[in-house]
Amino acid sequence: MLYIGCHLSSSKGYENMGRQALSIHAGTFQFFSRNPRGGAAKSIDPADVARLREIVGREDFGPLVVHAPYTLNPCSKEEKTRNFARMAMEEDLARMEYLPGNYYNFHPGSHVGQGTEEGIRLIAGMLNDVLKPEQSATVLLETMAGKGSEIGGRFEELAAIRQAVAPELRDKVGICLDTCHVHDGGYDIVEDLDGVLQEFDDIIGLSHLKALHINDSMNPRGARKDRHAKIGEGCIGTDAIVRILRHPALQGLPCILETPQEDLSGYGEEIKMLKSLYKGEEQL
Length: 284
Prior knowledge:
Blueprint: E1 3-7, H1 14-23, E2 28-32, H2 46-58, E3 65-67, H3 79-95, E4 103-106, H4 116-130, E5 138-142, H5 155-164, E6 173-178, H6 179-184, H7 193-203, E7 209-214, E8 216-217, E9 228-229, H8 238-246, E10 254-257, H9 264-279
Parallel strand pairs: 1-2, 1-10, 2-3, 3-4, 4-5, 5-6, 6-7, 7-10
Antiparallel strand pairs: 8-9
């Protein structure tokens, strides 16, 4: 089954996001846990969240994805930045218990000159501090394009973070694969999708892949730039995106569009197109 949706704004409340998703025939969606540039999180209205839970349960949505702010960098060389990351994630995971059983996605961070090994140690250290065996949310490490000092541009780095998390907490850590990021990071998902997924399985394990970000890329493979494009308007292309959506190993995962759109209707058109191609109602 294809659970496809897009990134929505939570500014008008949780129920409103559910209604927006229904209006574009989405079967999942993503939203920021707080302002993407950081800051305090808005207080939660339990009744509002309950109305969203009723919508997603009634309409048989796939898992939802909550995205951490971009400023969350647990491997910064600045202690205050690391402290914010720890505080924000701890708060966000507690808030996610209002929406139990969903995913919390974050960019692993940038080591800013400290080196990959130290960056991995710091990221895993934060996860060991904030994760709890009883939490219902799974935290997702996002695959990155590898620009600058980013951690997560290679599958080996994500595997190393998971391995450094305490065994009793490790099942709370999964992966979100971003198609633009892995393409820009050098993985050939256009011509060798099976090979890339086999490599992922060998290094991390496909059982730990929990969500997909579905984006085309403005850049050629290996550019390490991370510039999203609308589906079919980039270097990945519609055919390759549909092969990803149809791949037997990826069925049932929430697929989140983060393509550059002017408004919600643009996402609605992409969802309609990809659903039709997925079902074979249109020709590739």
